[in-house]
């Protein structure tokens, strides 16, 4: 199985957390939310002898997908995963906010995962948790064995994601966090799309939105 290596790179003008999770034995890697700076990421993977095999998108906003086309061109066999309800967001330059920021971009996923669907990558099972609210297809990725969940812009340390963008819904966001994330073990580490990591226990106790 191999131990997992988790690398955090803060990329772009929105300071997006791009995560790379790699199997230390096989050197296969997953890229989560490649915001921008594809060349930087590719150089890092070359230097560390990592082979990206998948891109997991928590949602379709431009500050989480900007490097996808270049990474796909560099690694043609890489598979892009996104939530089954997020296709509209990924394929609309207005809904994914790319037009607003002068970077019109559409992205297609190779695999659209359903809520609670389990996928196996780099020797690990990953549960896909649909948590709408920031966008309608927002998806968190739970590595049960490693006790990690990548929450995108759904749950932050002491905060939650915005719900005033297209397809956002605050009540759905709050209910989804309680139903899908706060039911995870309390010692699970939360890796959010921006700012510092946290834990399920800490957010259940101290997040002011709950």
Structure explained in plain terms:
With 210 residues, this protein is α/β, with parallel strands linked by helices. Helices cover 21% and strands 31% of the residues. It is built from 6 helices and 14 strands. Strands 1-2-3-4-5-6 form a 6-stranded mixed sheet, with no helix packed on it. Strands 7-8-9-10-13-14 form a 6-stranded mixed sheet. Strands 11-12 form a two-stranded antiparallel ribbon. The longest helix has 12 residues, at 170-181. The chain is globular, with a radius of gyration of 16 Å.
Would you spell out the secondary-structure blueprint of this structure?
Blueprint lengths: L3 E8 L4 E8 L4 E5 L5 H10 L3 E6 L5 H4 L2 H7 L4 E5 L3 H4 L20 E3 L4 E4 L2 E7 L8 E5 L4 E5 L2 E2 L2 E2 L9 H12 L7 E4 L5 E2 H7 L4
Parallel strand pairs: 3-4, 4-5, 5-6, 10-13
Antiparallel strand pairs: 1-2, 2-3, 7-8, 8-9, 9-10, 11-12, 13-14
Using brief descriptors, characterize the structure shown.
about 210 residues, alpha/beta, 6-stranded mixed sheet, 14 strands, globular
Major sheet: order of its strands? 1-2-3-4-5-6
Integer-rounded radius of gyration: 16 Å
Let me know the largest β-sheet: 6 strands, mixed
Cα separation of the termini:
37 Å
Approximate strand percentage: 25-35%
Point out poorly predicted stretches.
none
Category from helices, strands and their pairing: alpha/beta
Helix content: 10-25%
The overall average pLDDT, rounded, is: 97
Please state the overall shape, judged from the principal axes of the Cα atoms.
globular
Helix and strand pattern:
EEEHEHHEHEEEEEEEHEEH
How many H/I helical runs? Answer: 6
Number of strands: 14
